[in-house]
Amino acid sequence: MNRRLLPLLIAATLLVVAAAGWVTFEASRKSAGGAQGAFGSAFRLTTMNGEPITEAAFRQKPSAIFFGFTHCPEICPTTLFELDGWLKKLGPEADGVNAYFVTVDPERDDAATLKAYVGNVSDRIVGVTGEPDKLAAMLKGYSVYARKVPVEGGDGYTMDHTASIYLLDSKGGFFGTIAYGENPDTAVEKLQRLAKS
């Protein structure tokens, strides 16, 4: 690994962890007091299969939602792989949970790119993309942190972003999060409780 990139990666990781804590706090604050309605905001985006998707999809049955991007070097592929494995551990219970990977990088992550990326990991997680302004509004409505970070010495960029999986109950209410690096047994228990919500 390039030694000049190490401080950037460490700083990015610390930002992601801090953002995850803030998101959990914000989500808890927004849904304090229990059943106050659905978490987040209205949106109209596109799945990796080219189909329209709105906030109604998060209110049909419990949902596990991860926000990431296909050029992510570690956090996103690891989280997708783990989420797929945890859902497999649930067995038939997993049929009661929808799982989504929403890009925070719509400029590079079109539907075809998402389909190839997510499809390499899971056949039950649905990728979601859309026009940059619509996605930005959706991320804001769900208290998701995402920011472009230029790559040192290059023309490209990476993304700092919330690294937690959001859990929403069957009415779209905030149910909790699974943190990046969380104990796998705890993550499976959270998904089991989610499936019954």
TrEMBL record:
Residues 34-197 form the Thioredoxin domain. The keyword Disulfide bond applies. GO terms for molecular function: metal ion binding. Keywords: Copper, Disulfide bond, Metal-binding. Disulfide bonds join C72-C76. The keyword Hydrolase does not apply. Cu cation binds at C72, C76, H161. Pfam families: SCO1-SenC. Belongs to the SCO1/2 family. This is SCO family protein.
